[in-house]
């Protein structure tokens, strides 16, 4: 059963309600099934929540996401004096399974069609050093929620989305510190430095002193793309920079990047970006 809450990169969640609560005596979480997702952040004390039979004890400084449509409840285990923030929100309807699970690669500055075609799995439960700033951010969201102003709910939803993205980054950042992640970053750094020339797998392997097949496997597992795909996009980034900043024609730009056949350069460009270099250049002005 899927209990994680997912966002998509192209649409923000719509906040229904946001607030803060404190209990002085014994308290049990409501027994209910909601048609929206829930975010909790415990400031003091602790709370117990059971979601479809899975028990969570949320301690001070920890958060929890509850998925809409799942039955959740609690027993009277709240510590007196427990306080928490909550955000109730609707996630955009989409076929999450059809979207990429990987974010666009860092360093791809130009727009590519798949930049927003991915989903974001929010960290179900836990904490990180970044959580120390959550209370101030949530107070600001509540203040905006209660203040009558134009576009208030949209602004609240955007700020909640930003908070969730930062939370996701903080939690994943503490986990993605292993060897595979480090290797992928080294590969990307090399590709970015050599984006103005054709790719050579043997040179990359020697540079990192690792077998290329191993590098390729690790990179795809970490990024969802092949090394050659990433290198091609970085080369096209360079091409777009030259289109914007020089008067070089398309053939000259391709030549500078190691595409000695202008027709091949145009074909690769259109395959990745959906239009020819000439058509793409016309959009700048």
Automatic annotation (TrEMBL):
Domain of life: Bacteria
Domain HTH araC/xylS-type: 185-283
InterPro entries, per database record: Homeodomain-like_sf, HTH-like, HTH_AraC, HTH_AraC-typ_CS, RmlC-like_jellyroll, Tscrpt_reg_AraC-type_HTH
Family matches, as PROSITE patterns: HTH_ARAC_FAMILY_1, HTH_ARAC_FAMILY_2
One of the Pfam families matching this protein, by short name: HTH_18
Keyword ATP-binding: no
Keyword Glycosyltransferase among record annotations: no
Keywords from the UniProt entry: DNA-binding, Transcription, Transcription regulation
Protein name: Helix-turn-helix domain-containing protein
Species for this entry: Paenibacillus glycinis
